[in-house]
Amino acid sequence: MQQQIDRSAADDGRMTRRSALVHLLTLSAASLAICLLLIEGVLRLLPVSSGLRSLPVNAENPVFHFTPNQPFVHSLGWDMHNVVRGRVNNAGWVNDQDYVRENPLPLLAVVGDSYIEAQQVPYVDSMHGGLARALEGRLRVYSFAAAGAPLSQYLIWAGHAVRAWGAKGVVINIVGNDFDESHASYKTGPGFWLYFPDASGQLHLRLNEYRPGMIISLARHSALARYVIINLRLHELIFRVKSLAELIFGGPAAAASPYAGNTAAPADAARLHASLAVIDAFFRDLPSIVDLPRNRVLFTLDGFRYPDAVKAGAGSYFDLMRQRFREKAQALGYATIDLDEVFVPRHRRTGERFEFADDGHWNASGHAVAAEAVTSSTLLGQLLH
Q1: Do residues 175 and 144 lie in contact, with contact meaning Cβ atoms separated by under 8 Å?
Q2: Distance between CA 6 and CA 48 in Å, rounded?
Q3: Centroid of chain to Cα 178
Q4: Which residues on neighbouring strands pair with residue 259, listed in sequence order?
Q5: E strands, 28-127, where?
Q6: Which residues of the chain fall short of a pLDDT of 70?
Q7: Which of 135, 140, 242, 272 is most buried (most C-beta within 10 Å)?
Q8: pTM here?
């Protein structure tokens, strides 16, 4: 009898402890949920980066663009500084203008990646915004761009600008990571057209489809999620934690590569081979996809921007790639503006900087330099006469 009493008491004790544990976990979960809701509410009142909400990209909708007619907020870092408010227009591009097909003014399309998307500056301070203002009443200037896009994707947007919008001229801005990231071996991000090698090694454009799932859709609607992913740059935090853990506990820690021209400086043989093949494939495909006379296509080529950086970058990956690209373009009859020929003298004269202190993208001065260079180009002379 006593054993039954003892066993019953022990069972009651276990149940009491289990109930206490469940109660504690329930309270902890509720407290965490309340804290997260409070943080979410506070962040909704602050200028957290909103993101741009790209649409699905597939065989039926093969041209990457954003959800039309949406305002956006862009800010940098944990403290949400450098706040810019703008809009995605009726056609799905970051631009204060709504695009129209029927207009007697000739259209100049400006194509690129985040430099031309230009969330970091107000529209009026962007390269294409400056061009639109300077050419008002004589030319229309529309932009087609998104962060992360490589050289291969520029072909698709340039061709789209000509076919869908009737562009008579195209300016394509080239930056340091455009070459290797056009090759499927070096970029896996969805939504863009990349170069894939066939069995013989020949490169061909293929769409890497983008189908946003439920998690992405939910994250877009959470200020806390956007703050962690965009403002705190979650992927960089993960990489830093991983590298620190490898350093502490041993293992193949990833060595930080030096940068030159906003891309990794080392020019290993495999990267060079893939990138040179991309350049050749790009110029092979350009005439058929864009379908403009060669004198209606202009390349602006970003550089190192400052005398010391030019010297330090000599022989780096971007130095080799920009030389090769410029030589190939000019040999084929395409005009190319080396922006270092404008950036470097201007810096020597004024001492100004062309990017943000904590962001390598052009600031308003950088965009103004690029816009002025295009304004004085032969392409505009041809379009205006």
Answers
A1: no
A2: 60
A3: 11
A4: 264
A5: 70-76, 81-88, 107-112
A6: 1-15, 235-256
A7: 140
A8: 0.89
